[in-house]
């Protein structure tokens, strides 16, 4: 997911190619999720933007906004896979670092809006025609209009509900402010950093980098740290976010000692090692994948229950019926609406219907085919509620066991009495 540095990259290109220009046309592509989830529509967006002069572009954490010469203005979020593309320049970042000779088609796929500007002279300089497209394949981005003055955009929803930005709000996000925040909360420190209501812009890899640089275990509770540890977290938070924004998320310019440059080989043998030989371990804690370096990130107080005493992931069997999370959820799922969960497999062993007893006068019901399997399962599960999976037997029948059923010889068919139904199982010919 694009985080604070990647959003800074988008804002940079918006200022370069769109600010101070007049939008000739805007074509919105209707999407009842990307627009509709935030009370907007493609048609409303197009009408509000077309013919307007762009006066500015900015960000707060993972959100970015574009202001015009009159309200309304637009606030946008890239979601998991959203991006802004320009017809005159490639704007990809480290995830597209591999060079390619393939010429990308224009207009691109998965567009949510397409803005066009004519060639014009701005501040005495000639500016070429440009087309700008907002794309999102997974439809987790958000595009909205905000009816307020341009200089008040951060005082309105959704920006006002988010915490301070570590780069543009350094005067707010001080050591004392962070210490007060951490001491009134009681959750793992990484969870605190990822909560956008606390601090804007910190995503999964940024949080892991901050905690690695600060030598802090990600699952230690945030209210257990001393002044010196909080200062390390604060300084690391400001430094990592500032570097990510100043380099426009270009990982080639990141310091060589950053965890971020070596953390992506999860599951590969003999990988996940820093240049100094320290091993990188991936933990799935609190539903999120965390990269840590155990030699550096030591625990000094209580940690979350899903991390063992050695800093490793506790191994436990998943509960029955629990939904399996997709790979995308494990990597980065900051918002609840961005989660994708695979449906749980049906537990067919609990839906076996009880067979009806024979109507030929025999009061013993035939043995159930699932009796042996249920008995074996019951013996292997500890502390299970008694009778939780037991089906109620039909009235007039006796409970059957698989062992007795195997040892019981086949009974001879009894003569049918008048008025009774003869079972097909007892037909002799």
UniProtKB/TrEMBL annotation:
Amino acid composition bias (Basic residues), ranges on this chain: 317-326
Region named Disordered: 303-429
Classification via InterPro entries: FPG_cat, FPG_N, H2TH_FPG, Ribosomal_uS13-like_H2TH
Key words, A-Z: DNA damage, DNA repair, DNA-binding, Glycosidase, Hydrolase, Lyase, Multifunctional enzyme
Keyword Hydrolase: yes
UniProt xrefs under SUPFAM superfamilies: N-terminal domain of MutM-like DNA repair proteins, S13-like H2TH domain
Superkingdom of this protein's organism: Eukaryota
Formamidopyrimidine-DNA glycosylase catalytic domain boundaries: 2-141
Catalysed reactions listed for this entry: Hydrolysis of DNA containing ring-opened 7-methylguanine residues, releasing 2,6-diamino-4-hydroxy-5-(N-methyl)formamidopyrimidine
Compositionally skewed regions (Acidic residues) per UniProt: 329-341
Biased composition (Basic and acidic residues): 342-359
Pfam families, A to Z: Fapy_DNA_glyco (PF01149), H2TH (PF06831)
Family, similarity comment: Belongs to the FPG family.
Stated name of the protein: Formamidopyrimidine-DNA glycosylase catalytic domain-containing protein
Provenance organism: Zasmidium cellare
